[in-house]
Write a structure and sequence with these properties.
- By secondary structure, this protein is of the alpha+beta class.
- The protein is 27% helix and 15% strand.
- It is built from 20 helices and 27 strands.
- The strands form 7 sheets. Strands 1, 2, 3, 4, 5, 6 and 7 form a 7-stranded antiparallel β-sheet that branches. Strands 20-21-22-19-23-24-25 form a 7-stranded mixed β-sheet, sandwiched between helices.
- The chain is elongated.
Length: 764
């Protein structure tokens, strides 16, 4: 069999006529090579399930790096355990009648109770796909692991690689000449450079994981890879892993891998491993390492080492990416459109007029106090939004009822606190009057009010009676958030995932403390929604309502300030798409999360099988719920919606291998509010949607003065029946909420503005 990594193989990997090019997507007139059966056009590909041709054979179905589906006859070898990868089994396999060898790593069923194990496999596959898509057709890709395929939805999820040529480096110790040692060091530096350009850090470069065939090195599979900039996770052993990596300190850096390259260079030359805590004590004895030592390559801190491109220049190794350094990203044109849209909205809202406060500057007054109140927005008047307001008093104990009224989020009428309208609600839903006039113990009064409700006095005959949690009326200015989208786009799952992350303390790193708005209602929501999702159960569809009620509420406070009630509305898509009375509350909603479904919007052939399976069709006209809601919300000067908004591309796991999606979905949220990262994600998401979906799906961004865009995944996978077979794995679900909190002045250290700039003076 021709090995593409063998030195005698002189054909170019990018040549479409080259035998076995795994990145060739041939058609009927371009048959595949039986020695590299990873293309669905390969002659051994089984388009339909067939009886196995031999009792030793089974069938194996998987996706290639380009998410093309293939099915082949397969014969497996014996399983063996991997000490470095607990929960995984490895085995060789032969694909097709040509018996092309592959290596399979699969997550056994018994290890799937640990959600981290599945996450590690997902992370590995994402890294391997990124490598294959970017470099698979390049000659220098021989130094990198080569992906064949994967299936993350199988009962035992797996990933397939081409077998590695050569032998581990530890078998070559003391047997290599100076030229070979220099080639190995140079090729390892090149591999780190290639990975670094993908924002990947391998973290597992060592004598037993790197192979050498006499001509080329080959890195092992990226099972330990992390994204550059993510918090380091403790991994590896001395001397091969850097001191910072072993300790799990700081942020992951491509120069972590250069430490490993330095230690291997010393090992190959000296024949023994170093201590691994800094420059070797006898480094001066090896003249061939003098230049590496002077460069800082053995520095125990990543910041002291040269960058991969600098090391290549030092080693006189051509930079494989230098020729394509000026290549334009195909989405750059769309990113420029985003910038133009931001400028357009700033002009329409008057923010770029002479004397207007520049974007990015923070006023000395508390952020939220500068925004008009809901009363003022709907009825006019109210406090001057530019007048400085003193910080509110601390929130403990529960403050006395304020004299000013609160707007009922259901009927949009003012409600004055009245003790005669206090009630409790029993298990059957009965409203029981609550009389606290005889209670003389302040602690008992506070506790009773915390769980009590206040009837809305504006109920008229024929309308559904409703009530408000008392904390909604006696704390800071409320913030109402509505999730908008058609039926089955995942609004309910997204809200449950958000509140699940909040319950796990996801907002605390940002300086926010959260308590239930009503303890009993919150417990019910956690039990019926959040816990069900966390246990891997698919949530039922939200039923249509005759009256809009919020799903759950929180009291959110920052830095000891008075808590602000935050309530979430989750209505059925049918209710939102109709101009009915149920949706009249939308005119008073403070902020919106528009939830977009890739199955309905994104033009990618890899989504077609899922669309067919789920009965969903792609639409060019956008989400009708978006249009209906946006047409109903009051506009400010310039015709823009003043209510802050976030456009959440939910189910982003379906498109996670698109580079622009993987750049964000593969990362955890930053540990603090980062306006630059928020803007970068919004630009990328806008560019992706503009390129793959069309303008109708961007209507929330076009119509709202402040709108950020986010890649999120509420469940992290597709349901089978009523369950998610590998559990629910939310990703970045707090990003839209944090963005809205920042724009509404609820997030410490963030000014009340989206990417379009400050929102002072906007009246809606």
């Amino acid at each position: 069999m021709t090995d593409p990594n063998h030195p005698n193989d002189q054909s170019h990997p990018g040549d479409p006529n080259r035998p076995g090019d795994p990145n060739r997507h041939g058609g009927p007139n371009r048959p595949g090579d039986p020695h590299h059966p990873i293309d669905p056009d390969h002659p051994d590909h089984l388009s339909e399930p067939t009886p196995p041709p031999h009792p030793y054979y089974q069938e194996l179905e998987f996706l290639t790096a380009w998410e093309a589906r293939g099915r082949f006859a397969v014969r497996y070898g014996e399983d063996h355990q991997l000490p470095a990868r607990p929960g995984f089994l490895a085995r060789r396999a032969l694909l097709g009648t040509a018996a092309a060898p592959v290596l399979q790593y699969r997550l056994v069923a018994s290890a799937q109770t640990d959600p981290r194990a599945y996450g590690l496999l997902e992370r590995e596959v994402a890294a391997a796909v990124a490598i294959e898509r970017r470099y698979g057709a390049e000659r220098f890709s021989a130094v990198l692991p080569r992906l064949v395929g994967f299936d993350l939805t199988a009962a035992e999820p797996f990933v397939l690689y081409r077998p590695q040529a050569g032998r581990p480096l530890f078998e070559w110790a003391g047997r290599l000449g100076a030229d070979d040692q220099e080639r190995i060091t140079g090729q390892l530096a090149m591999a780190v450079r290639l990975l670094g350009d993908l924002d990947l850090v391998h973290r597992a470069i060592a004598p037993d994981t790197v192979r050498w065939d006499g001509s080329r090195v080959r890195l092992c599979e990226p099972y330990a890879a992390l994204r550059a900039g993510e918090p380091r996770e403790a991994f590896g052993a001395a001397p091969w892993a850097s001191p910072e990596q072993r300790a799990g300190q700081g942020a992951t850096d491509p120069r972590d891998d250069l430490w490993s390259v330095a230690e291997l260079a010393y090992y190959l030359l000296s024949g023994r491993p170093d201590r691994g805590d800094g420059p070797p004590v006898d480094l001066a004895d090896y003249r061939r390492l003098a230049a590496l030592g002077h460069s800082g390559l053995f520095s125990p801190q990543a910041a002291g080492r040269p960058r991969p491109a600098e090391l290549l220049r030092l080693l006189h190794v051509p930079d494989p990416l230098a020729a394509g350094a000026g290549a334009a990203d195909p989405l750059d044109r769309r990113r420029a459109e985003y910038d133009a849209q931001i400028a357009r909205k700033r002009a329409l809202s008057g923010r770029d007029r002479p004397g207007a406060e520049p974007a990015g500057e923070t006023s000395a007054a508390p952020a939220r106090s500068q925004r008009p109140t809901l009363w003022g927005r709907v009825f006019g008047g109210g406090d001057d939004p530019r007048r400085p307001v003193a910080p509110p008093p601390p929130s403990e104990p529960l403050p006395a009822p304020p004299s000013r009224s609160r707007m009922c989020p259901h009927c949009l009428l003012p409600v004055e606190y009245d003790e005669r309208l206090l009630v409790t609600i029993d298990a059957k839903g009965n409203r029981i009057p609550l009389d606290l006039s005889a209670e003389r113990r302040p602690g008992h009064v506070t506790d009773a009010l915390r769980k009590a409700y206040h009837l809305c006095p504006h109920t008229v005959d024929g309308d559904e009676g409703h009530e408000l949690p008392v904390p909604y009326l006696v704390n800071g200015e409320p913030l109402s958030i509505a999730l908008v989208g058609s039926s089955s786009v995942g609004k309910t799952h997204l809200l449950a995932a958000m509140l699940g992350e909040v319950e796990l303390g996801g907002l605390e790193p940002y300086g926010l403390k959260c308590r239930p708005l009503n303890p009993e209602a919150h417990r019910t929501y956690l039990r019926e929604r959040v816990q069900s999702l966390q246990q891997g159960r698919q949530l039922g569809r939200t039923g249509q309502q005759t009256f809009a009620r919020f799903a759950d509420g929180l009291l959110v406070s920052a830095g000891g300030a008075t808590p602000r009630p935050v309530v979430f509305f989750d209505l059925a898509g049918e209710d939102l798409a109709q101009d009915s009375e149920v949706g009249r509350f939308l005119m008073g909603v403070d902020a919106f999360v528009f939830v977009l479904d890739p199955l309905r919007s994104i033009r990618l052939s890899s989504l077609d099988p899922i669309r067919e399976q789920s009965g969903v069709r792609r639409r060019d006209l956008g989400d009708e719920a978006f249009a209906t809601v946006l047409n109903r919300i009051p506009r400010q000067r310039g015709g823009l919606v003043a209510a802050p908004a976030a456009l959440a591309v939910n189910k982003s796991d379906l498109v996670r291998f698109e580079p622009v999606v993987d750049r964000w979905l593969g990362r955890a949220l930053p540990a603090r509010h980062d306006p630059a990262a928020l803007r970068a994600e919004s630009r990328d998401a806008y560019a992706f949607l503009a390129d793959r979906a069309g303008p109708a799906w961007l209507k929330p961004f076009d119509d709202c003065a402040d709108c950020t865009l986010h890649f999120v995944a509420a469940t992290g996978g597709q349901a089978r029946g009523d369950r998610f077979p590998h559990g629910a794995r939310p990703r970045r679900v707090l990003a839209p909420l944090l963005s809205l909190f920042a724009m509404c002045g609820l997030l410490p250290g963030a000014e009340p503005a989206g990417p379009a700039g400050p929102t002072e003076g906007i009246v809606r």
